[in-house]
Predict the 3D structure of the following.
Amino acid sequence: MEFYFDRHPRAFASVLNFYRTGQLHLIEEMCVLSFADDLEYWGVDELYLESCCQHRYHQRKENVFEEMRKEAESVKQGGAVDEDFGSGPCTRLRRRAWDLMEKPQTSMAARVRTPLNIVVPGAVLATVPFLSEVCPHSPLPPIKFLVNVTVHLGSCLILAG
């Protein structure tokens, strides 16, 4: 019989080691919230963390919660991130270009531009098979398959969006 657990393997190794030795240590390269979730999943209380790891664990967890709180406040304030566009005659134009490219919810033009990110490259790639007719010695037939897949995926993304 085989069991599969969709959990982080390093966290599982740490939990398994805890059950073997009675010592639970923090995994440095893992997100502290993911580690906490895995501990909860395996039924291990974070109070079992060794004293060498407890301070670092709680400090990292507080830092993550503080960053999440700051991000939530930023979103509540209209998503105004500290973006510096400088000063001068082009400041307003820079901000509009930034909003157009990075924030599709800001304007109708930004909403129209987003699907074009898929359609235009797909249309350009769709012309590649026609180049094989112009240049018969070119190794383009394998590319034709990729182009058709790319165009198909682009169409699916547009229909899904």
Q: What stands out?
A: The first helix runs from residue 9 to 21. The chain is about 65% helix and 0% strand.
